[in-house]
Amino acid sequence: MAVLERIKHHDLEGLRTGHFNLMVNTSFVLYRLGDTLIDAGPRNQWRHIRRFIDERAVRQLLLTHFHEDHSGSAAQIAQYARVTPRASEETGRILRHGFPIQLYRRLMWRAADKVITRPFQPDMLINGHDPVIPIATPGHTPDLNCFLLPQRGWLFSGDMYISSRLKLLAREESLTDLISSLETLLSHDFDTLLCPHRGVVSDGKQALRRKHQNLLELVGQVQHMHQSGLPVPQITQALLGPEPMMSFITGFHFSKRHLINACLQM
Ligand SMILES: [Zn+2]
Question: What's the pLDDT score for residue 236?
Fold first, then answer.
């Protein structure tokens, strides 16, 4: 276990932590803006997270989605800081009952404990004066919400960004929803993107726009190659290259071939 980095951007503080520092999505940045934590961080990093939250009183914990790297320490934070996390109703339903995860996710993050949440409110504030607006952005998961801070032009992007060139997709992700959620985000005003894996992306809207364009291009190329008779493995190899270690580690649950298949299903 390790603290990999401390992040500072104006009054925003971040703690990058994680068991494995293999790819951008194998470590996690827990963000704190004054009295508010954005996501809880993974369960197996709790001892580092506890030290981080000891630095400043936590009055609010907002969750983007149920995934265990984002929600894993929510039960611990709720008890330790005496806050009830806020999440969408769908996220709340999943976290209340718990959810199964594959072995690689248990090794990477450990499973999240069950936790009770409260739904988002219409007029949520950070530090008592900074409005924060949840934006539903299904695709990566059905329950994903990003948090827009309109006065700052900041977007806490959950797992909507990570990279401007998507190369792998998990089996349960919906590419159709992901593309339309990117369009939803692009219709809002912001410039800085706070990604829990990539970190602070200062030209964030441009980066998201590139991701959207790259995905549309990929869908077009995949469909064109498929129409000319090429099978999925060859299309995958030609457009995305060989499967990385992560695909093998996850038993192809998270892989390039899923992304190509998803392009064909659109
Ligand atoms: Zn996720």
Answer: 97
53 CA distance to ligand 1 centroid (A)?
Answer: 22
Q: Looking at 29-38, 102-111, 122-131, which range is the least confident one?
A: 102-111
**In angstroms, what is the span from residue 260 Cα to ligand 1's centroid?**
20
141 CA distance to ligand 1 middle (Å):
7
pTM of the model: 0.95
Please report which residue ranges of the chain form alpha helices under DSSP H: 46-54, 68-71, 74-81, 89-97, 103-108, 175-186, 204-227, 232-240, 245-249, 256-265
Sign of the torsion angle spanned by Cα atoms 131, 159, 198, 115: positive
Hunting for tokens 């998507």 — which residue is that? 166
Q: Distance, CA 229 to ligand 1 centroid (Å)?
A: 34
Q: Which helix (H) or strand (E) holds 243?
A: none
Query: Residue 184 has which token pair?
Result: 């939803």
| Tens-digit pLDDT profile for residues 193-228 | 999 999 999 999 999 999 999 999 999 999 999 999
Domains, the chain, ordered by start: 1-131 (3.60.15.10)
Rg (CA), the chain: 18
| Residue 230 alpha carbon to ligand 1 centre in Å | 32
Residue 228 CA to ligand 1 center (angstroms) comes to 34
Give me ligand 1 centre to Cα 81, in Å.
Answer: 24
207: closest CA among 169, 155, 170?
A: 155
Residue 207 CA, ligand 1 centroid: distance in Å: 19
| d(CA 134, ligand 1 centre) in Å | 16
**Burial status of residue 248 (CB atoms within 10 A of its CB: 0-12, 13-18, 19 or more):** exposed
